[in-house]
From TrEMBL:
Record's keyword annotation contains Cell division: no
Signal peptide segment: none
Entry-linked Pfam families: MerR_1, TipAS
InterPro entries recorded: DNA-bd_dom_put_sf (IPR009061), MerR-type_HTH_dom (IPR000551), MerR_fam (IPR047057), TipA-like_antibiotic-bd (IPR036244), TipAS_dom (IPR012925)
All copies of domain HTH merR-type, residue ranges: 1-69
Coiled-coil stretches: none
Gene3D superfamilies, per the entry: 1.10.1660.10, Antibiotic binding domain of TipA-like multidrug resistance regulators
Entry keywords, A to Z: Activator, DNA-binding, Transcription, Transcription regulation
Protein name: MerR family transcriptional regulator
Length: 246
């Protein structure tokens, strides 16, 4: 399909499709003869993914990062989107109830407390984005674990020793500022170590998400903090800074 046809099919404006192309979010083939944008079936499916994530309040930059991630799994994404849309539905229904109650309150039929007036509102964070972070972080960890499981016992023991040495080194800088050159050099070494060990499966985004899991998952926290108290919290911040700066 050409741009106008896709716009008519989806309701997304031509201008928006051109913008998606410009920022590299949805880049169709160009007709060699006339330069028109030509959208394939794969592009149409990708646009559907973009719109699902957009409906869940993901910024375009984050959507691009997710779709470009080599660990992106469309089937997993669809299951996640369904789950999160149901959560959003529940929030909207709660807000509609609050709205109905507010109308009654204005008419003098009921009296609402101040707390009741804000039932259903939540601006503290984007729970959908946090869920996706955790999910794709988990996917990378599963992939890494699978690789380790297929190793011989001798290789697994050697890997454990090298991992322990890596975490001992990280623990030695845990009391420094996570933004310091010393801390960032250690974290950079860790990033390259993980990819050298597991076959380049960690993007910068996945690396930052892994740091989040070090604190969010008690199993990670317990194992990591045995090398030094507070190491998991330090790594979460330092890994996020490294990913952002690179």
């Amino acid at each position: 399909m050409q741009t106008k046809e896709l716009a008519e099919l989806t309701g997304v404006s031509v201008r928006t499709l051109h913008h998606y192309d410009t920022i590299g979010l949805l880049v169709p083939q160009k007709d060699d003869w006339n330069g028109y944008r030509i959208y394939s079936e794969k592009d149409v499916d990708k646009l559907q993914q973009i719109l699902f994530f957009k409906e869940l309040d993901f910024p375009l930059k984050k959507i691009k990062q997710i779709l470009d991630d080599p660990n992106f799994d469309k089937e997993v994404a669809l299951d996640l989107q369904r789950h999160l849309l149901l959560e959003k539905k529940e929030r909207i229904e709660a807000m509609l109830t609050t709205l109905d109650q507010t109308i009654k309150n204005e008419k003098g039929e009921i009296t609402m407390t101040n707390k009741e007036k804000f039932t259903g509102f939540d601006f503290s964070s984007n729970p959908y984005e946090e869920e996706a972070k955790k999910l794709w972080g988990d996917k990378v960890v599963e992939k890494a674990n699978k690789k380790v499981t297929n190793m011989t016992e001798k290789d697994q023991n050697a890997l454990k020793e090298s991992f322990d040495a890596e975490f001992r080194h990280l623990a030695s800088v845990r009391n420094s500022n996570p933004e310091s050159e010393e801390a960032q050099q250690a974290v950079a070494h860790f990033f390259h170590y993980l990819n050298d060990t597991h076959g380049n499966i960690y993007s910068l985004e996945a690396f930052a998400n892994l740091g989040e899991m070090y604190v969010a998952d008690e199993r990670f926290t317990k194992n990591i903090d045995q090398f030094g108290e507070g190491l998991s919290a330090f790594l979460k911040e330092a890994m996020h800074i490294y990913a952002k700066n690179n």
